[in-house]
Every structure is written in structure tokens, then in C-alpha cells.
Amino acid sequence: MASARVTRPLPAARVASDQPRRGATTRDALNPTQVKPVANAIRILRYLSQLGMPSRASQIARDLRINTSTCFNILRTLAAEGILEFNPYSKTYAIGLGLVKLVDNSLSDGKRISAAKPLLREVAEKYGVTATLWRRIFPDRIVLVCVEHSRSDLRVHMGEGQRLPMLMGATGRLIAANGEMTRQEAQEAFDGLRWARRLTFDAYWRGVKQAEKQGWAVDDGYFSQGILAVAAPVFNADTKVEYSIAAVMFRGQKNEAGVNVLGTELLRCSDKLTRLLF
């Protein structure tokens, strides 16, 4: 079950240095046989990978001691090729799914899930929530396979490996909403569930229909009292819900408009996860 834990934010992680020694120029640091733009592109990718969070062009150029204009052109090229992702609102760059696709065939299931962490971390930090990735385990369970917590003092703590009945929570509504069972089958499964807050099947089914209409689902304190979850589906090649990305927070933490914004954001993320995981 989700639990509230008061924690102090951790200090920002120190990034392993990819900078030249103090006083040295970029030219000095590079092997004379290297093609400088290629070498700098690799240094930028290594830097962002180690950093684990988006960064502005000016910060990257300063930390790596690359000419600002040169750095910007490299970043723009990498973003155009899908190797990096550019956020036009924050003006930051981060490792993109295109880079993961380059090594797609060598990634195991576990590594694919680990590759989703930066996306979850971005959601957690941007919206002050606990971002989670759930995987459907046939025939009738879901399991929490990846978690990223925000740095808020007060946050919902969840542990990987937690298993739930398939129709439980916001993810359960998504599975029911995507035509994988009849209303009668859903009600038979629903009757065997235990909820933290009283919930009738009719109310549950209204949530299923709402999820079918808008593409994302909400559980408002029924799975875990005092906790609100918003989730969007991640479809496999057979258009079945195999994963879901969910944002977990305290009830009342966001108003209705804020929940709607978050639901739309999770849909955007689910599209990225579909390309990443499948």
C-alpha cells in the first residue's frame, strides 16, 4: 500500500566530471586525431546521461567548456535526430528515446524499464508527485516495476514489487476501459476486491467509462485512503494495456484543473513509453 513519509530533499547529485582539467582548453583535452564536433557530441551525451535530468544549453557549454554557439548547434542537431529531447517551455535538453532505439536490440526487459526512469523522474519533479510504472502480469495481477519520488518534504512513498489485483486503482479502470472484459466479467472480479473507501460497482464503472472517453483514469482515495492516483495506459503491439504510467499524490494536492493537466501530460508520456518499451 502507498504510505506517506516525511522526508528531507536530498542534495543535488554530483555529476561525474567530464570537464577538462582546470585551466585547460577544450582543444587541449581532445586527442588531436579526434573529429572535434563528434567528440563534443559524445561528451554532451555522456554528461546528460550522468546528470540524469534536463539541462540548458548554456549550462552544458559552461560545464564542458565548449563554445556556446558550437554547443547550441550540436544540441539542436541531436534533438532534430531524436537523440536528445528539447523542452520548449524550460529550454532544456535531455536524453531522448532515439538514443535508446539505437541500442534497442541489446536491451533486456529490465534495462528497458530502467530506461523509463528519466521520464518518470521528470513527471515527479515537474508536478510534485510520485511517478510509477505498473506492469500487467497475466492473468489477473499488476506489479509496480519502477518508481520515482519527488523531492518534496512530504510525499507518497511506494516500493517496487508491490502487486495488486488487475482491476484495482486507476490502472484497473484503464484495463477495464479498453474492451478486455464485459461489464458482467468486470463486476464478478470487482466483487472480490477490498477497497479502502466504500465504492459501488456502478460508481466504479462510471470511472471506467470516463477513462474510455478521455484516455486516462483516476482513483480518488478508493484504493488507498487519502491518496489520489491518475494513470494513462501503455499499449503493446497487440494494442493491449501492458503497462500504465501513474502519478500518485495526496487527495486535495491538486484541484480538478490540475488533475486534468496531469492526465493530459501522462497521455503524452504514455506515447513515449510505448515507443521505448515496444
Structure write-up:
The chain is an alpha+beta fold and 278 residues long. Helices cover 42% and strands 22% of the residues. It contains eleven helices and eleven strands. The chain has helices at 26-29, 36-51, 57-64, 68-80, 97-102, 109-115, 117-127, 169-177, 183-190, 201-214, 256-277; strands at 3-6, 55-56, 84-87, 92-95, 130-137, 141-148, 154-157, 163-165, 217-220, 227-235, 241-250. Strand 3 and strand 4 (92-95) form a beta hairpin. Helix 3 crosses helix 4 and helix 8 (169-177) packs across helix 10. The chain starts with a strand and ends with a helix. Mean pLDDT is 86; it is low at 4-28.
> How many domain units?
2
The H-and-E topology, N to C, reads as EHHEHHEEHHHEEEEHHHEEEH
CATH H-tier superfamily of the largest domain: GAF domain
Continuous helix count? 11
Number of strands: 11
Summarize the structure.
With 278 residues, this protein is of the alpha+beta class.
